[in-house]
Task: structure prediction
Amino acid sequence: MEGEKKRKRYDKQFKFDAIQLIVEGGRSVASVARDLGVNENSLHYWKRQFKNDGKDAFPGHGKLKPEDEELRRLRRELEVVKEERDILKKAIAFFAKHGT
Result:
């Protein structure tokens, strides 16, 4: 399809380097955006992510930040425990009804 722009993807190191130019290099977001050919809004977003998450920022496609991965693991574990509880409830009801 003509006229469609393909979204550029930047790796984690590129984003860290760009943010370093702003934070440690004392350069403006606009200046870094022009020099790197990156949208200014993207740099503002990356800067916000870096401020919030530090070294855990920019986990990459399909990867989660450590705390999000832990939350996912705990939710899965909770579902398993709920299923086991429900099975035990049914077993108790069965044996109470039929006796042992």
Notes: The mean pLDDT is 85. The longest helix spans residues 66-98. The chain has two domains: 8-61, 64-100. Residues 8-61 form a domain with the Arc Repressor Mutant, subunit A fold (CATH 1.10.10).
